[in-house]
Write a structure and sequence with these properties.
Elements (H helix, E strand, L loop, with lengths): L14 H11 L2 H6 L4 E2 L10 E2 L2 E2 L16 H7 L2 H21 L7 E2 L22 H16 L11 E5 L12 E2 L3 H17 L5 E4 L3 E2 L2 E2 L5 H4 L10 E2 L5 H4 L10 H11 L12 H12 L5 H17 L19 H13 L2 E5 L16 E4 L21 H9 L4 E4 L3 E6 L5 E3 L31 E3 L5 E5 L5 E4 L5 E4 L5 E5 L11 E6 L2 E6 L4 E6 L2 E5 L9 E6 L1 H10 L3 E7 L19 H13 L3 E6 L7 H6 L2 E5 L6 H10 L33 H4 L17 E10 L3 E10 L5 E11 L10 E10 L4 E9 L5 E3 L4 E3 L3 E8 L7 E7 L9 H4 L1 E2 L5 E3 L1 E5 L6 E5 L6 E9 L4 E10 L1 E7 L2 E8 L8 E10 L2 E9 L2 E9 L1
Parallel strand pairs: 3-4, 5-7, 6-8, 7-10, 12-13, 12-26, 26-27, 27-28
Antiparallel strand pairs: 1-2, 8-9, 11-28, 14-17, 14-25, 15-16, 17-18, 19-20, 21-22, 22-23, 23-24, 29-30, 30-33, 31-32, 31-36, 34-35, 36-37, 38-48, 39-42, 40-41, 42-47, 43-46, 43-48, 44-45, 44-47
Helix pairs in contact: 1-11, 3-12, 4-5, 4-12, 5-6, 9-10, 12-17, 13-17, 14-15
Length: 949
């Protein structure tokens, strides 16, 4: 190889050989510098600067305008992997095209999010695909394949899955620990990641902020014991922003930051996203960790190898051979049509009952349409959206499709004045004729977007300004000026009508009224200060004592305007939902499933004025709307649908396309049906459609169409490796439509708790009226397995299994039963292996914690002063034991019970720390096969039980 063409630039060599050559040419200091998110170039080698991380969840984000597709949960609602693959391809093509003009656009894309939508109160539910691991995996495989491209060597972009692992809460997200039992870990959370990794379209993962079983996810032992065993390719693990510092700060898991970064590196984190573009802090910690012997050069080289491998696959070192180097597809007609197609596919028809003899939808020709509601003329974006190239609200789409002359509009805001104690009212200054325009460049990173200070602040005078008030629920308000701008607070503390929409990492456009005497104080939620009127304008003061007492003068109630519009129409479309920056978003969980009272009043007012009322919910998450579901003839749901949302909705309302999306989450009837947000035990907590024992408002997989489908001839054949199923589906109605055929499986008589039914296959198929399709599905027998905690392995239990086919998890049209061979579950071999504490069958009042900082689990009582109980079924003690040895840390008592008899009591004296384990023995007489109950008393951590005698 010539000096001007070193081996790392030789495309004929294997990738690992090229990476090894490049690594060997880097000095130790240059290698270390590659561990930060923002890596410097190495001029002498022609190595360019590089950064990990480009948000691309449903379009290229944070880098200016790009095609905006439906939110991820909307893509999940399509149940259409091939469509999602095409969306991923479009996103990656735009990333390449945008990078050609702006090198700040990255190709290591941090998408998709595959965290399962276990709890609908999670604030980031919009980012995931589904509550089911099989559906999530199928959609993630499709999206990552689209992002990666189909070239055998080079990748168009390099996807990173978020967020490893078991992450579903924003409340205390960096300090809370998810207690995840082995069955839930293997059967639920890991499965969401595994499919995409095994498909070979994933470049890496990003650990989550939270802890799992007492250990921060950035130290997860499963990165090595699970993730990296699923594939032979290198995987790049990128930390979440600021998470390495959390290890020593908010989590206090280590005494020093040097110990923290060393532990993360050794656990498998390869790129540290911390302190923004300033790499000096992290690199200084890593340097000191090297000096202290906490890590060695091999640890650094391992991480650098993974990053260089990703860069090699992206074609960085073969610019002449990279098939994607000249990509120019940006905002093409094909991408615009795809955005519309995706938005249509995401529409879910929840209910469609007769209103005057025929179903309300699709809308009949002629007549007036009232489009009302707080989201009727909105095209909302979320934290991970790009800027819109074009906008289509429901109102825009309906006017375009049906004619503006047939459409009436009432937003339903409350129109108010805010008066001070001396009778003045808050006034918004008139907009200047020549108003400055914000430089788009400063908006590329929304976290750094500062509020505007170039506009005049609010003042107060006798007349004031009529403001639009929207109550988003939980008392959270936005206030909007007549010109459409929201009241916002900039760094100088002054209140201005300056924001096009609520947004930002800390939302500066939300307020809350606090009752005070005969009036209210107005709390600004972004700063925690109170609104006051000063000589230089209306501002936010830190102290409550200096707050202005305001009275609300109502000019018009929103429900009155909605009722007027509804009464004059033939049909009413109420559009309700959420703003993705308020009451449920990154950093903030929801507090309720209920529709905000303001919007609840609007649909009721519309329906009272006109029974031909449909409710369209445009939201990032499910709502509990039992009254609306009972009273209204039609309900639809869609996630925020991106740039073509309004057009898609209007086409569905008109019947140009039949809605055929399906719910990717259970819609519960009330808050009482939802478990605690921090309860991650989907089995014990009876969560998601898999285990929920109640009656949901709308079940997982639910969704109607404008036609009918018949299911016939479900057959099944079993061999040693798989079950082959076939089913014929026919469109028996008069409208062409997609149907989502869903196949579920269940063991008939399981020996351990299993799902009521679990999705094993699905297909979305388009059928003309009268047309049928013979569908075939292949289900590997491994899909029927469960994690056998008694033996620490996957097991397919022998016996009868039912396969159920239909259009939802609750609407089963055909069932077939088969016999499957498998491994007969045996008793626990406690004489050989003892009992690992976390391998219980059932528990009450316990939490799994870290046995050591590196790996291992222990179990502790969940709360102080309250015992916890573990149940281990079918323990085989053979001819008998006479002694138990308890390995635990802390102090307290461990009491063993078989049947109703106490068989051992072990007192653990203080061991000297949470990781200082001691083994204490006690007499214990047990024989044969029996269930064993273990009670934990006091602040102890039980790791293991051993038996002898």
């Amino acid at each position: 190889m010539t000096a001007d063409r070193p081996p790392f630039r030789d495309p004929a060599l294997p990738v690992d050989a090229r990476v090894a050559d490049l690594l060997g040419r880097l000095t130790p200091a240059e290698r270390l510098a590659l561990l930060h998110q923002f890596t410097p170039g190495v001029d002498r080698l022609g190595l360019a600067a590089f950064r990990t991380g480009q948000e691309a969840l449903h379009g290229v984000a944070w880098m200016g305008p790009a095609t905006v597709f439906p939110q991820a949960v909307g893509l999940g609602a399509s149940w259409h992997p091939e469509l999602v693959r095409r969306v991923g391809e479009a996103v990656s093509r735009e990333a390449r095209a945008m990078r050609a003009k702006d090198e700040r656009v990255g190709l290591n894309v941090w998408a998709p999010t595959v965290n399962l939508l276990r709890n609908p109160l999670w604030g980031r539910g919009e980012e995931g695909y589904a509550e089911d691991p099989v559906l999530t995996s199928a959609v993630a495989v499709a999206f990552t394949r689209g992002l990666r491209g189909d070239h055998p060597t080079y990748w168009r972009t390099a996807p990173v899955l978020k967020h490893w692992l078991a992450h579903n809460n924003e409340t205390a997200r960096d300090t809370s620990s998810a207690s995840v039992r082995p069955r839930v870990l293997h059967e639920y959370d890991l499965r969401a990641f595994r499919g995409a990794v095994e498909a070979g379209a994933v470049a890496g993962v990003m650990p989550a902020y939270n802890l799992v079983n007492g250990r921060p996810n950035h130290l997860s032992p499963y990165l090595e014991s699970e993730l990296r065993t699923w594939t032979g390719q290198e995987l790049l693990v990128c930390s979440d922003a600021g998470a390495p510092s959390n290890l020593g700060d908010s989590q206090a898991y280590f005494d020093t930051h040097e110990e923290a970064v060393a532990a993360a590196l050794r656990a498998g984190v390869d790129s540290f996203t911390d302190h923004g573009t300033d790499s000096t802090v992290i690199l200084g910690r890593l340097e000191r960790a090297l000096e202290q012997g906490l890590i060695d050069q091999e640890d650094v080289d391992r991480a650098v190898t993974r990053q260089l491998t990703v860069r090699m696959l992206l074609g960085e070192f073969d610019p002449g051979l990279d098939p994607y180097a000249q990509e120019s597809a940006y905002d093409t007609n094909a991408h615009r049509e795809l955005a519309r197609e995706a938005a249509e596919a995401a529409l879910v028809l929840l209910r469609n009952e007769p209103a005057g003899g025929t179903p309300l939808l699709p809308l009949r020709e002629g007549g007036r349409i009232a489009v009302v509601g707080l989201l009727a003329d909105a095209a909302k974006l979320d934290w991970y959206s790009g800027a819109l190239l074009r906008r289509s609200s429901p109102l825009d789409g309906i006017r375009e499709r049906f004619g503006a002359d047939r459409v009436d509009f009432a937003e339903g805001v409350d129109r108010i004045r805010l008066r001070t104690a001396d009778g003045r009212a808050l006034r918004v200054a008139e907009p200047a004729a020549e108003e400055s325009v914000r430089d788009a460049e400063i908006a590329l990173d929304p976290a750094l977007l500062a509020g505007r200070t170039d506009l005049p602040p609010l003042t107060a005078d006798a007349e004031g300004t009529v403001l639009d008030l929207i109550d988003w629920g939980d008392g959270v308000l936005t206030l909007r000026a007549p010109d459409g701008r929201y009241l916002s607070v900039a760094e100088d503390g002054l209140v201005r009508a300056s924001a096009d929409e609520p947004g930002g990492w800390v939302v500066q456009e939300t307020f809350r009224f606090e009752a005070h005497g005969d009036g209210h104080l107005l709390l600004h939620l972004g700063t925690g200060g109170y609104v006051s009127v000063a000589a230089d304008g209306v501002k936010v003061a830190a102290a409550r004592g200096s707050a202005e007492v305001l009275t609300v003068e109502t000019v018009e109630r929103g429900e009155d305007a909605v009722a007027r519009a509804a009464a004059g129409a033939d049909t009413v479309i109420v559009v309700a939902g959420n703003d993705p920056h308020i009451n449920g978003r990154e950093t903030e969980d929801r507090t309720t499933l209920a529709l905000p009272p303001h919007q609840d009043r609007l649909w009721r007012a519309a329906h009272a004025a006109n029974p031909r009322t449909a409710l369209v919910l445009v939201s990032s998450y499910p709502y509990a709307v039992p009254d609306a579901a009972a009273a209204l003839p039609a309900l639809l749901w869609t996630a925020h649908g991106g740039q073509a949302a309004g057009t898609a909705l209007a086409r569905a309302l008109a019947g140009d396309v039949s809605p055929a999306g399906r719910l990717p989450q259970t819609w519960y009837a009330s808050d009482a049906d939802v478990p605690d947000l921090l309860d991650y035990d989907v089995i014990g907590g009876r969560q998601t459609y898999l285990y929920f024992d109640g009656t949901p408002l709308f079940p997982f997989g639910h969704g109607l169409t404008y036609t009918r489908f018949g299911y016939d001839a479900l057959t099944a054949a079993v061999d040693a490796e798989e079950v082959r199923l076939s089913c014929t589906v026919t469109n028996t109605g008069a409208v062409a439509s997609d149907e989502v055929v869903q196949v579920y499986a269940r063991p008939v008589a399981p020996s351990v708790p299993r799902p009521h039914r679990a999705l094993v296959a699905h297909e979305r198929v388009h059928l003309a009226p009268g047309a049928g399709a013979a569908l075939a599905f292949t289900v590997p027998l491994s899909a029927l397995a469960y994690w056998d905690v008694a033996h620490g392995r996957w097991a397919v239990e022998p016996g009868a299994y039912e396969f159920l086919a239909g259009p939802s998890s609750a609407d089963v049209r055909r069932t077939v039963r088969v016999a499957v061979d498998g491994l007969v579950p045996g008793p626990r071999p406690v004489l050989e292996a003892g009992l690992e504490a976390a391998d219980y069958d059932e528990q009450t009042g316990t939490a799994i914690v870290d046995r050591a900082r590196v790996s291992g689990d222990a179990v502790t009582p969940a709360g102080p002063g309250v015992p916890g109980t573990l149940l281990y079924r079918a323990c085989d003690f053979g001819d008998g034991v006479t002694e138990v040895a308890v390995t635990a840390a802390g102090e307290g008592e461990v009491v063993l019970t078989a049947g109703s008899a106490e068989v051992a009591r072990v007192t653990l004296p203080p061991t000297g720390g949470r990781y200082a384990y001691a083994t204490v023995g006690a007499p214990c007489h047990l024989r044969d096969v029996t269930d064993l109950r273990v009670e934990l008393r006091g602040p102890l951590r039980l790791a293991h039980l051993a038996f002898a005698g």
